[in-house]
């Protein structure tokens, strides 16, 4: 039986931490849908289209990962694609409170879709897209934090070579 999982996020930009969670989900689920959520409360550096293209490029090696965008409720998207699970990464205890609130709301919207929390690899426990963007903006070395194509895209955004 096919099991579809959704890995949602803003991915502005995708980091090695995100990629680790996606890869691990791809090993467990038949199909993984990476949902680039268009969050109106955030001011992204990359357009939705740019984020989708970067994610597609770095996840092409996984044969069961698809990348799309969604601007509505995550649970509506999960229904649309026939998902039975949501996969969320946790970096630290501080993530848990926020994720618990979101998961509780999602469960109220549809208790048939289960949420799985995946602990990040320890080497990425501090990593966030915001930190990566800040370091890249000031010319710091982000090569261990993001795939090369993402590093290049960030350098282009900040006019660094």
From TrEMBL:
In the UniProt record, does the keyword ATP-binding occur? Answer: yes
| Functional pathway | Cofactor biosynthesis; coenzyme A biosynthesis; CoA from (R)-pantothenate: step 4/5
Q: Which residues form the Cytidyltransferase-like domain?
A: 7-134
Q: Which residues are tagged with the site Transition state stabilizer?
A: 18
Q: What is its main location?
A: cytoplasm
Positions that bind ATP: 10-11, 18, 89-91, 99, 124-130
Compartment(s) of residence = Cytoplasm
Task: Name the EC number(s).
Answer: 2.7.7.3
Entry's CDD domains?
PPAT
| Catalysed conversion reaction | (R)-4'-phosphopantetheine + ATP + H(+) = 3'-dephospho-CoA + diphosphate
Give the family, as the similarity comment puts it: Belongs to the bacterial CoaD family.
Xref: HAMAP family: PPAT_bact
- NCBIfam families recorded: coaD_prev_kdtB, cyt_tran_rel
Write down what this protein is called: Phosphopantetheine adenylyltransferase
Write the lineage as a comma-separated list. Answer: Bacteria, Bacillati, Bacillota, Bacilli, Bacillales
Instruction: Name the gene.
Output: coaD
């Amino acid at each position: 039986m096919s099991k579809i999982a959704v890995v949602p996020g803003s991915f502005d930009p995708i980091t090695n931490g995100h990629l680790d969670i996606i890869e691990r989900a791809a090993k467990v689920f038949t199909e993984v849908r990476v949902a680039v959520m268009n969050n109106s409360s955030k001011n992204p550096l990359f357009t939705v289209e740019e984020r989708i293209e970067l994610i597609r490029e770095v996840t092409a090696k996984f044969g069961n990962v698809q990348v799309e965008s969604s601007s509505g409720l995550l649970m509506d998207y999960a229904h649309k694609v026939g998902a039975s699970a949501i996969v969320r990464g946790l970096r630290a205890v501080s993530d848990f409170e926020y994720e618990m609130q979101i998961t509780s709301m999602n469960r109220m919207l549809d208790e048939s879709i289960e949420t799985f929390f995946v602990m990040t690899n320890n080497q990425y426990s501090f990593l966030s897209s915001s930190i990566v963007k800040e370091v890249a903006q000031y010319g710091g070395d982000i090569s261990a934090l993001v795939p090369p194509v993402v590093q290049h895209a960030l350098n282009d955004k900040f006019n660094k070579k």
